[in-house]
## 1
Amino acid sequence: TARSKGLSERGVVLGHAVKPALMPVVTIVGLQLGAVLGGSIIIEAIFALPGLGKLTVDAIYSRDFPMLQGALLVQSIGFVLVNIVVDVAYAYLDPRIRYG
């Protein structure tokens, strides 16, 4: 119906097709970012790379509970921030979704 109202092909695609098509992309990107954050622990431990994952594994092995709590807190904040970005992107892409 947008085409019959006089919108150009580009206007129809950008205004009416791209936003709904991005919803699954945003979902997958959010899930993949969470997997990257979780997978960094394993990758850094296997390849002895310095980073938050290796710090977490070293804290587990040495029973350094305050360091472990801090590292897990930082990782949890990362997961929460990714989820907030995904939720904001959902609200932008689909105006029917409202939070509050």
Note: The CA atoms of residues 21 and 39 lie 28 Å apart.
## 2
Amino acid sequence: MLVAIQGCSHGSLSAIYDSLAQYTAVHSRPVDLLLLCGDFQALRSVHDFPSLAVPPKYHALGTFHEYYSGKRVAPVLTLVIGGNHEASNYMWELYHGGWLAPNIYYLGAAGSVLVDGLRIVGASGIYKDHDYGKGHFEKVPYNNSTLRSVYHIRSYDVAKLMQLPRTDHTVFLSHDWPITIPRHGDTPALLRRKPFFRSEVETDTLGSPPLLGLLKHVQPEHWFAAHLHVKFAAVYEHGSGSVVPVNERPAGRQGDAAPIAVAQSAEAAGNTNPDEIAIDDEDDFDSIVAPAPAPASGANGQSHPGQIADNANPDEIAIDDEDDFGEPGPSAGPSGDSGAGASAELAEAAAAGNSRGVEQAHGEEAKEAMKVDESVDLVKNVREEEGLEAAKGVLGPEQAARPAQSVQESEAGPSSSSSGRVTKFLALDKCGPGKDFIQFTVIPTPTASTSTSATPRLTFDPHWLAITRAFHPYLSTQFHQTPLPRPDELDALVGDELERIREEGLLVPSREWTGEGVPEMVWEKGEVEVGRVQRFWPTAPAQGQPGGNPTAWYTNPQTEAFCGMLGIPNKINPAPPANIPADNAPLHPAI
């Protein structure tokens, strides 16, 4: 399966699809699957701006609303996770996962699906210690605090992901990075590009502690991430028989320790990241990024630095209330792709003047650092160059010499080394001039597509469905997270639900249902296609359509259908007992 992976999207959906079309034109091979690693910005209209953690002067609508309204259709199956700059009101409607638009599927706050048998696992959001043990208490309309806490990953969702079995043919998507991962790649090159990461890299505090626990437990062949706006590859060797002890699993109880100790962030320590230009939020300084224009496909087909017009990218400019490195360019209009261009580059140049005792890259050294190709399969060659000696334990197995290929091809079968399983990690940059923001790679699937069309088959992961049903009584929409049972008890609960699904099947619409009227529901065993249960239904009006307001919330029919399939109550924006207020009614009736 030919898979394209994109770093931060920032609302530039049409630009991303254009880059896929350009790749296909050059290589005469269509992309089968697109994976987007967060900061997607599924803005349906300007009414979603108050739910986006971006200062008003940087608001740019992007092009997602055109796919939501049906004006455009995604040309390839697209799987999405959330980051820290999202239309959080819409993402919350689909907490369990669902179609954001036709052919664009959100994995939810956490989720796992199968694409032609390839397991795609996703963990949305970023890590903040002070919110990790809380429930999903945020409600629309968000205030200054909940606007940011809503996208912070929760221990409940991590505990669910920790129940996934370790299997071959697994890909993991996250927005944040697992902590310690910089030590498993070309660390010197990373620090030349992002010198303000040095303190966090040296103290193993760059990234998310819960994601490290998931990396050790799930041990996927591939892990793709974004967030830090730099391309970085690493090879993580798990070791023979590597397991995560029960007492190291991220627990669901508030206040429980993460897999390893959490140190204060660079912001808290006084190290700002001048490239990101942080947004002030009193207790949370998150980077901010926005729509970017269409990338051009590179000739080698591996990673494609953007050859993009120098249009202002208003969201790319960082604003820290203590350190302002320069006024950003003008804000983009309410619609259309907004470019990652001159203003972002000026901000980065201004940031280079920052002097806080942090090592900076200068002149030719910086230029050479930006030329380093960090594709996973080339990491070893880069490290062997003089002055780029790697940290211990970072190299994967030797690869047989082979001719250069236009597409980076994964080895058939699971990754492994002499000591155990191996995960190939790749983080990608944001859209922008000269940025490595998209990667094309071939990933083997355990089963060939049985679809009559070229679209891969998207099916529910039965393990994830069992996990969701077993954990559902503990899903909290209040401030405090309901304490979870002991891990061994959770194991038993999930095992029981998995056996129940295998024996009884799932309650799904009959195959004869055309999407009109009330479907006949039947019990069915085996694989169930996602589109058979969840069909895209617009809830809020799209840009240019009448109705809608910034404070409205909606009961999403897809969430109702998902919960109905599992026989669990819908806790996500459930419809009021009486009549639904007009502003909260979906544009189409729920099934």
Note: The first strand starts at residue 2 and ends at 6.
## 3
Amino acid sequence: MKNIQPKAHSIRLVIMTILLITVFTRCEIQDNFEYQPSPTNPNLNMTAWEFIQERSDIMSTMAEAITRAAMQDYYSQEKGYTYILPRNNAWKKYLTANKYASVQEIPVEQLQSALKYHLVKGKVNFSNPDEFKNPNEPIAYQTENGSVMYLSRSTNYQGLINQGTKKQWTIITSNLEATNGTLHVVDDVVFLSQ
């Protein structure tokens, strides 16, 4: 019996040694411990309308709304807008909240007004330090429907819509540069709620 314990101990020791050798020989030494950023290219090399059509996986309802409202020119002309683009799920929430079965049921005038609110006059880029020097300080911008949209950024440069009003929204993808303006993608059809 006493002979078995030293053998078991020896076997465990050999197994542990083999495991340690295996672990240490499989590890690689990292060349550089510093963060190496990779540049991102926000330039799309297409118009806002082309982007919407190309991204039908998330923008098909937006394309349908623009077509129904006969507003394709706003998204393809070289006017230099900031485009707030609601994704498909945003339109689904909007349709449900307003008791519409589809975009085709929304009165054209109402749809045009909603879409024109999503067109901000001028280009707004949230990573522009000259424009957004301080976080959480909304700046009023005119929209194509004549209303004001308040745009600001958080401390991590995430875009915010209508901060300081009754309802604000966070931009989920921002600062995409189309050939005719700046695009910001949202998860809601936005409106001004003072």
Note: Strands lie at 81-86, 119-121, 139-142, 148-153, 159-161, 169-170, 173-178, 181-186.
